[in-house]
């Protein structure tokens, strides 16, 4: 691997050149940046992190509710219109008992796996092979009282189970089409599932061959102890409308996630981003703008980006047309993490990274970009909205541990990210030029590079 110091030397060379060119071409940008930079009080960010990280803020818990209440109160105190968006999430407790046996196969150990959101049951029935378990595979079949043997592929696990159950099957045994086990999910809970287990390819093919040869096989499937708990988590949304008569119709979203994983106070992950969102909201609360700003802290990011998906799915066509960018800050304050980087889902530059790189060059040094999902920029990217994750990479070794505490937070890192994201957002939102045109033109002189930098 190429040594990092060599990479950054090369980058620094082109950066200085780019920065000079850019500064000369747009002398007023520094004045605009200063409107943001001079107002940022890093102690506000630090104190918010300190407060939020007193305890873990697991989505759906009272601790999350407390954080949500605090965040909304802060937004309101800055004069924002706020909305708390509730959304449902499911906590799945996997089964405590999983058994599979087939008469005549002695004590073959099938080592059955189960599926997330799978249901309990205790079924004995004749085994019937239904291939891939597509609609055409079960057409005209009466599987009442039987157990369907299905091969992986072509359809989702849930579709296979629905198809087999629809034909009357009491349970499903799904076998792999490749080596190894299946660690699968059915996506969401349903009352229409029947108990289902997954087994390896070799054992599954052996069963299918025996059935094809005319053997009759009786199987027993038992699953017990699986449980789905319904929980509610929340997003907090603060909106600032543009000045009347100056409205470009554009919307910019600045986001972070306020939840943390179990057992981790989440000072850096992601009280740091949440606190920076709050501070930027405060800084911009009285500024004249021509672009609607939405400051959002998402819930249940750690459970699979559930809050940001819920928010993204709630957007109207009109809003989707008008959102020009989403800036996501996740883990932006650890003294023990690497340098700032902007990750896009597709690994391509976009207007968010262009603006971030340009702001970085003007303020503290170039910011490069890379390819990574794993945060709340993903649902927006999937909707075609330019978005990027601002994060220090590699991340600190104790992320997602009880050691993610306030004493490891660096004011310098917080300040740098707040300045860069704030200046980048303000470049779109400020009044002086037609916003999107300005945003497109201004960052061009800055060179910034793609980096294969791993998060951990
Ligand atoms: Zn995390």
Q: How would you characterize this protein structure?
A:
- This protein has 456 residues and is α/β, with parallel strands linked by helices.
- It has helices at 4-25, 27-37, 42-52, 62-77, 135-138, 157-166, 201-212, 267-284, 306-314, 317-322, 351-363, 377-382, 411-429, 435-441; strands spanning 81-93, 97-102, 121-129, 146-151, 171-175, 196-199, 218-224, 227-240, 251-257, 292-298, 323-329, 339-344, 368-371, 387-393.
- The strands form 2 sheets. The chain has an 8-stranded mixed beta sheet, with helices on both faces.
- α2 (27-37) packs across α13 (411-429), α3 packs across α8 (267-284) and α3 packs across α13.
- The two termini are 16 Å apart.
- The structure holds zinc ion.
- Zinc ion (ZN) binds at residues 269, 302, 400.
- Zinc ion binds at residues 269, 302, 400.
